[in-house]
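for the record, two folds in this file. i put them one after another cuz i was lazy. first one right below, seq on top, structure tokens after. the second one comes after a little note so u can tell where it starts
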Amino acid sequence: MKTLILLTNGFPYGTWEPYLETEVNYYQTVFDRIYVCSLQIRKEHKEKRSLPESFKVIPVYYAPRYIYLLHSLVCFFDRNLYAEILKLWKNKQLSVKRIVALFVYLSRSHYEAGHILNYFKRDRIKRGIEDGIIYSYRFEYQPYVGVLLKKRFGFQVVARAHGFDLYEERHETHYIPMREFLLKTLDKVILISQDGVNYLSARYPAYKKKLILSRLGVLAYPAKETASPGNQAIQVVSCSNMVPVKRIHRMVEALSLIQDLPVKWTHYGSGMLLDEIMDLCKYLLSSNIEYEFKGHIDNKALLEEYSAQPYHVFLNVSSSEGVPVSIIEAMSFGIPCIATNVGGTGEIVVDHYNGILLEENFDVETLARHIKEFASMSNNAYQIYRLHARQSYMVGYNADKNYRSFMNLLEKICCRCS
């Protein structure tokens, strides 16, 4: 029997990891037993998304700080602590903040691995488990939890790397602990973009052979037919958490420069900057700009919205990305995208083919100009953009094709045949 132990952030609780909702439906094509270890659950995570009955969910709640402080004492018995400190010292990267980050990383890992092992021990689940794989959906501390679990199960351990969990510059200390140790220890690291592969290859060339490109995917909906705006308002859509890295305020600033044509802007997603963005809209946007903030919406409902609404162009102006699934979803409906050329975005959006690529530090005048170009575009020219957007999705990001291929990869690793 083949067993999968999946390490996730919160999933299936709360709203984290919405794109796992599609991937998990393919696990049963390979694995007989599937355990979802849901890490870092908060009290507010009351909703639980549905999973097949055969899945076993192991909830790991975020503990009070004193618990992590107590587990930091366990770190002194972990020889990898001293190896990592020595590496930082040799590379002249040692600092108080990085030491603190390292202790948080290790104490959390030991606490959560212990919680998971107690679950298996209590329910006697270890009995009858043979071949298996531990799969971390993120590439921060979660794979280290997997390494600690491997001591008990002897399974292969792999991790996916996305964006924030991959690019160290996105962290305040420009440091993600235990990176080289994980690359040395894990059986494979699975990147969702070629940019991610290149990033790790350049930093850690000794581990190139462990890096595998396996793209995410979204489910195929029927192609959506939408005419160019013509004399109607151009329908602009965006979807992201309202956090600084998404730079939603720059969308508002660009829209404020458009005063000679009607625009309807719809944004899906919420977050810490919602009130600030709403105030900015009230202050900057003229009456020709209609805007609506839909708040958080689950993934299935979002795709139904895309199927029903005549959106003309999708915006993503992030300062950093892995591969933005939000863009893939929009393109699956044939919606052209205007996006910043950061991370793996340029692997999806091809400039003047299925959308427009902006420089990372674009000026808002340029964004406003491109929105106006789509608004005034002939229907024939606009339909070519839509066709190319849909084709780009079908070739590179179709969920059924990508996740079946990914399951084949996990099966080979599980059977130690890779």
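(here's the note) second protein begins now
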Amino acid sequence: MRWAAVSALAALILPAPVHAHGLFDAHLLARAPLLLTALLVATAWLLYVVGARKVPPRRHEALCFHSAMLLVVFAVFGPIDDWAESSTSWHMTQHMLFIIVIAPLWALARPLPQWRGVTGRLARPVWTAILRAGRYPTLLALLHGAVIWIWHTPKLYVLALDNLWWHAFEHACFLFTGWLFWWSAFRANPKQVPQALMAVLLTLMHTGLLGALLTFGTTSFYGEGRSVQDQQLAGLIMWVPGGLIYLIGGGWIAWRWLLRMWRRQQARGASEEIS
């Protein structure tokens, strides 16, 4: 996995073949948003690798983080980003990679200790704000839900396709709010578990509603150049695989909660027998 991370970092830095959203082509200035995105991704990855030497992560956490970063490179700089320009279903696939794959992998990776180990006091206000926000899973679910619906309105959807700055900002919104949402749900303490389950259920319901609207729509919401059938496929991608991931996430949270309660009851029963 370490060699995969080095290879992906090199791919972000070295020149790549020319394509519609490529990092390097004849109009380098126009690609500034992609170059900035590549710099941010490479910086976050490098800080984690360096921080892992100071604060060694668990093996499964490191695996989750590097897998997520590889998927970020694929989703943002790979061919899927070009296909998404003309296909609503591929655009939805890209969004769902951000929301239900990369974001929960980041949450499971728990990279804050590694980043904090490198940045020290310099970025302490940022990490403190993130930790405080994690106490409110329902609020973060509402924020993440608002981001999903706002960027799927026709005007902003087309704006993100036509303008690379807005395109990069759209991706950042999905990734950051998705990470916060999943992280707050996964790290919920026993008292917060009902809120976390409510947050996941709420997200399952409103994303399912958006997927159903796209699936059963009889006209193209995002311009005449996009087919209705492709839009309906995009709705199914959000509705079915997305709903399945939220059900799995909610089930995992509930299972951990019940397991904690069972262990506490066992410990309490054992202490009563001893006394």
